[in-house]
Amino acid sequence: MDKLDASQLTVMLLALGILIGGARLLGELARRLHQPAVLGELLAGVILGPTVLGALFPDLQTFLFPTTGPNALVLDAIGSLAIVLFLLVAGIEVDLSIVWKQGRAALKIGILGTIIPFAIGLGCAWLAPTTLGRPEGADLTVFVLFIATAMAISALPVIARILMDLDLYRTDLGMTIVSAAIFNDLVGWTVFALILGLMNEHSSPWSVLSTVLLTLLFAGLVLTLGRWLIHKALPPLQAYAHWPGGVLGFMIAMTLFGAALTEWIGIHAIFGSFLVGTAFGASSHMQERTRTMLDRFVSFVFAPIFFAGIGLKVNFVTHFDPALVLIVLVIACIAKFLGAWLGARWGELPPRERWAVGAAMNVRGAMEIILGVLALQAGVIDERLFVALVVMALLTSAAGGPLMRYFLRRKQPGRLIPLLAPRYFVRELKATTRQEAIAELGTVAGEQAGVDVAEVELLAWNRERVAATGIGNGVALPRARLKGLPSALAIVGISEAGVSFDAPDGLPAHLIVLVLTPQEDPSTQREISADVARRFRDPAAIQRILRTTNFTEFLAQVKMLEG
Q1: Can the peptide bond before residue 244 be classed as cis, meaning omega within 30 degrees of 0?
Q2: DSSP-assigned letter for residue 427
Q3: What does the alpha-carbon distance between residue 148 and residue 370 come to, in Å, rounded to a whole number?
Q4: Which of these, 42, 131, 144, 413, has the minimum number of CB atoms within 10 Å of its CB?
Q5: In this predicted model, what pLDDT tens digit does every residue of 331-389 receive, in sequence order?
Q6: Measured distance CA(391)–CA(396) in Å, rounded
Q7: Is-contact 509 495, C-beta < 8 A?
Q8: Are the C-beta atoms of 310 and 21 separated by less than 8 Å?
Q9: CA-to-CA distance for 226 and 230, rounded, in angstroms?
Q10: Cα-flanking dihedrals φ and ψ of residue 504, to 5°?
Q11: Nearest of 369, 367, 361 to residue 404 by alpha carbon
Q12: Can you tell me the distance from the alpha carbon of 475 to that of 505, in angstroms, rounded to the nearest whole number?
């Protein structure tokens, strides 16, 4: 029986460890810079691939990441599994009921935001295929349809994350954008699945027709009967199977069955996993904890393998064509902005919101990269166009949030974690009264940030006398708004004995956060206070924080309370 020998297994494990470790490290760095994690994960692959490591140490790069042989096959198989699971997570984000709830505006944005970019991409590719990088020998019809789809597709998971970061996800505007993106994803992936069927070199008119019919039949069954069966199966699984293993195992098994079936039909496995994910996401029995756990498992383990693996396939320096990148970027942005803006105008949204909708729908993210990988593997596009699509996807994803903030005149919401720093952390407060605690934390603010300590103490204490700032569960939030303060500050102190801040539950405060914000920006103080109250609503959280011994342990505990 063929199998990896000891040396091949060693190399495979070493390569996977380096790939996942590097991708996660740079992914975290990207998030720290307020960029999508996929940007860092892709960069890790570029560094480990032929672009950097291959140029500096070609023998080492070939040893770790061979392009042929058993190890290459294993890495490719793991990458295929990773993308199937990633599309499951993307499908779960789709809630079909939202589309109907949001009504006509979302549907109008979805229709024009899909049709107009598709038509513009179709026309440009048909009129100037060589300019858009059509490789020699590629089927013109398939190439044109691919470009049209690439111009039309959006990235629902990235759009959802941007809306959450802007505190827009649950608003009417946020739900309208999500609904339009859901419509866009369903249409785009269906069309692309059919294009994948056309890519098959053995296809004939009859085989293409049968693929289309089987695809539509499969989609119809999954979204009706399959959805109903999943909805009925989830409660007994949650009640009687071991949580979360029982539910997660069932979800992954159903996903793999759906992926295998669509691969057998003649379209890509990702379409099956996406539809199965949609069926799970449509069930009201789908618990948020299960959804979050699966998302984190896939996003932090499997997705980095796939996205870092992209950098192993192509030399991004050799195949970087500035003119082609610019052409693709300009066509993609104009087409998507125009379609989404016209849809928003048709839906009678206010002028600022129309531009914000355009910025959101223009986000391509991981979905565009996945399309590019599949087309590259099928020979529909070459490395130059693939690199251009990846660059376009990353730039539109990075620009989505800032552009939405600009169009809506909306600033980044105040949050606790970005304000935390070792120099603003006091592990053992000496204060025994709340006035002493305010003074002790105010002194730290003065020493580290140069603020007027006396002013901090006066304003915070006056605020305290008007209304006590103990919020319960062992947390207190004294605060002050300072004139001329450049940005918000959070000075954190921990008191083992506890300090009375006259909390509603009568408990002393063990975690005291002095929040200082600019006088000219009253909303930031409210946002940070709400964020602190949300994070520490569980009394057990304070007990875990009291067991920390330094800032790093404290920060780790706070981050575990995310969401």
Answers
A1: yes
A2: S
A3: 15
A4: 131
A5: 999 999 999 999 999 988 888 889 999 999 998 876 777 778 878 877 888 888 988 99
A6: 9
A7: yes
A8: no
A9: 6
A10: -60, -35
A11: 361
A12: 11
